[in-house]
Design a protein that fits this description.
Elements (H helix, E strand, L loop, with lengths): L2 E6 L2 E2 L2 E2 L6 E10 L10 E3 L3 E4 L2 E7 L4 E12 L5 E3 L3 E4 L16 H8 L7 H22 L6 E8 L1 E2 L2 E2 L5 E11 L5 E11 L10 H16 L2 H6 L5 E4 L6 E3 L3 H8 L24 E2 L21
Antiparallel strand pairs: 1-7, 2-3, 4-5, 4-8, 6-7, 8-9, 8-10, 11-15, 12-13, 13-18, 14-15, 16-17
Helix pairs in contact: 1-2, 1-3, 2-3
Length: about 300
């Protein structure tokens, strides 16, 4: 019988949550044939393996084709009681699982290869070129927004608590650990070492799809212009041909495309950085009691004034 995989993203207060850094885990998956989920499960799998920030994978022998109702149990922390998630319905056979998104970027190389028109499977040299293009496009976004767009773990020492807030260098959406700092003689220094997650988590947050679209569009255009594109046989879309047929402008030429469409923001043109302005970072203090709300993480309405 064939193996099957299922990726699961825990949700806490409506947002993707990563339990492992805080001692939690995704414990088990059970499949039922009845919607009430009261019969004996036809399959039990677990624990899931963490494959990326907030993403956990179950691997199991696929059951017979059909519809099944799921229960997933996971723990927020080591000491907490398990959450019971009974909200999903699966139909087997499952569709092919997409390639994992590597740590530090918001899209998988295979998705960029598909958008850029590379024949599959892609060679290792092509994959490396795509990763370079992904990082370059993402770096432009992060420089504009003033914050990472993929979740990043940061450890900072010498931090002080100001009432209910920490003076962190980056806006944190989750505090992982707070450790009081002491001198070599064991005397409290009155400061703390803080471990926290920062960034926008654009790889999985549906609200941040415009960021993924920008990175995908520009990474695809960049990689089509790289030397590896001709070797790999990537297709190029013709934008225009002059009257004599002697000159061709390709739709993936960033400079020429932007010169003509110039950041117009029109449908079908490459997205521009200004389309992401609602996620520009503002300076905040971090509440000592926990993570930031979505508004405090740097989201704002386009009609809002500039950050203070």
């Amino acid at each position: 019988m064939a193996n099957a995989t299922l990726d699961y993203v825990p949700l806490l207060d409506g947002q993707a949550y990563d339990p492992l850094p805080e001692g939690g885990s995704v414990l088990s998956l059970r499949l039922f044939t009845d919607e009430a989920r009261v019969t004996v499960p036809v399959l039990t799998s677990g624990p899931a393996v963490r494959i990326n920030v907030s993403r956990y994978r179950f691997t199991f022998i696929a059951p017979a084709n059909g519809t099944y109702y799921t229960i997933v149990e996971w723990k927020e922390t080591l000491a907490s009681q398990p959450f019971i998630d009974a909200n999903d319905v699966l139909t087997f056979p499952l569709p092919s699982a997409p390639e994992d998104v590597p740590e530090g970027v918001v899209l998988a190389p295979d998705e960029i290869a598909r958008r850029a028109g590379f024949p599959t499977p892609i060679a290792q040299s092509t994959r490396l070129a795509i990763m370079d293009a992904l990082r370059d496009a993402q770096a432009d976004v992060e420089a504009y927004l003033g914050q990472p767009v993929a979740s990043t773990r940061i450890v900072e020492g010498g931090r002080n608590s100001y009432g209910a807030e920490w003076n962190l260098s980056q806006p944190a959406f989750r505090i992982i650990e707070v450790v009081p700092e002491v001198s070599t003689t064991g005397v409290s220094l009155g400061t703390f070492q803080i471990t926290y997650l920062t960034g926008l988590d654009a790889s999985i947050d549906p609200v941040l799809r415009p960021i993924r679209r920008y990175v995908a569009a520009h990474a695809s255009a960049l990689v089509r212009q790289s030397p590896v594109a001709a070797v790999a046989g990537a297709r190029r879309s013709i934008r225009s041909v002059n009257v004599d047929g002697q000159g061709i402008t390709y739709g993936d030429d960033l400079g020429q495309a932007n010169a003509k469409d110039g950041g117009s923001g029109q449908v079908g043109t490459l997205p521009v950085l200004e389309s992401l302005s609602r996620w520009k970072r503002r300076n905040v203090f971090q509440r000592a009691s926990g993570g930031l709300s979505r508004a405090e993480r740097g989201y704002r309405d386009p009609d809002d004034g500039p950050w203070l």
